[in-house]
Amino acid sequence: NAGVTQTPKFQVLKTGQSMTLQCAQDMNHEYMSWYRQDPGMGLRLIHYSVGAGITDQGEVPNGYNVSRSTTEDFPLRLLSAAPSQTSVYFCASSYVSPGETDTQYFGPGTRLTVL
Amino acid sequence: AQSVSQHNHHVILSEAASLELGCNYSYGGTVNLFWYVQYPGQHLQLLLKYFSGDPLVKGIKGFEAEFIKSKFSFNLRKPSVQWSDTAEYFCAVYAYNTDKLIFGTGTRLQVFP
Q: Is any Cβ of chain B less than 8 angstroms from the Cβ of A109?
């Protein structure tokens, strides 16, 4: 049981490049979320999914796309990276909505720098 | 819009000092409340939660928090901090009608021996 895994751990991009941050969980959780963590701004929800084939926007969705083709995977795509997307990205999963459970598991994070 | 405020951005304490971190939210309906902690180099983990019942909740490592509905507050307390409590602390609020968990901006706690 690996929990929530994220790859890569670190990434440097140039402005305009695209990339996909990978997130996977092996706990059969329906609910998955992507957050970004910025100094002085805490964690902000980017996108979330309540199950395979279902995604929705969070607080800061612009510039990011997600899809959920399987229960296990929830990749986050940056279409055209901008310096404002420099951040630490966390993926999280839970059986039910993270606001209704005390067992939301977070991944180790991806530190992204956009030059 | 739902928001969560943590007014203490950076707190510095000596070991054995008492701790209180403020958390206020702006939402009038039913909420669930959380405190998460992020130790240096680690990812977030749950410290404690309030869903219903006794408004004074106890969490791990001697932490507790009190939900005061009339003040829309959920302050975190610990009577005597330790060096190992050095971390960043996040308050989070879930409002049932939005189905979103909103985090505060975080409070960085540094405890010196």
A: yes
